[in-house]
Specification:
Radius of gyration: 17 Å
Order of helices and strands: HHEEHHHHHHH
Shape: globular
Strand order of the largest sheet: 1-2
Helix content: 40-55%
Distance between the termini: 5 Å
Number of strands: 2
């Protein structure tokens, strides 16, 4: 996202379990998780929040649809759908928690059932280049990143609609530059990030 914005920034690589849990980083994010963005005195954690913040900080990049437009509602929907149900169901699947899911658990879980999330995502991206209108937004960045990562990690199926939507977006120059800066991903500790 920082590359899409053309922002000037510094990155800091943190190690899972060590520097992520060190006092210096816990002062920024008490959860000891990534990503986190520090912009002046402002600290933003949570990927969807970082994406929304940066899209608003760089309005000339048009990474968020205009306020009040139908596309803006869709933009919020997909940012928070990934941050909520998609991330939760991916974790549940990876940890094996879905194997014995009861009907009652599906009713109380925010994601419902795995198949519900997959079907919703597939409908959202099928036949679409972008999910919120006719141009690329931060919602596309998040969806494509998460779909790509989850197909790679095996937490989401490699559906033709997912590949047709996500793979071209993951080839955007900003995405490629960001991947280079991130370095090699360890599948066990990878996360879709800002």
């Amino acid at each position: 996202m920082l590359e899409e914005c053309g922002a000037q920034y510094d990155t800091e690589q943190l190690e899972f379990g060590t520097t992520m849990k060190a006092p210096a980083y816990l002062a920024i994010n008490p959860m000891g998780k990534v990503p986190a963005l520090q912009h002046g005195e402002t600290v933003i954690t949570e990927t969807a929040a970082i994406l929304a913040y940066l899209a608003d900080l760089y309005p000339e990049k048009r990474l968020a649809p205009p306020v009040g437009s139908p596309e803006r509602g869709s933009y919020y929907r997909w940012l928070f759908f990934v941050a909520g149900p998609v991330e939760a169901v991916s974790t549940a699947k990876e940890e094996g928690w879905l194997a014995q899911q009861t009907t009652q658990q599906a009713l109380t879980a925010g994601f419902g059932r795995f198949d519900d999330v997959v079907r919703t995502l597939e409908l959202a991206v099928s036949g679409k280049r972008y999910v919120c209108g006719n141009h690329f937004t931060a919602a596309d960045l998040y969806l494509a990143s998460y779909i790509g990562w989850s197909m790679m990690s095996g937490t989401m199926p490699k559906l033709p609609a997912f590949e047709a939507y996500a793979l071209p977006l993951l080839q955007r120059p900003a995405s490629q530059r960001g991947d280079t800066l991130d370095g090699p991903m360890e599948e066990s500790h990878a996360s879709a990030g800002a």
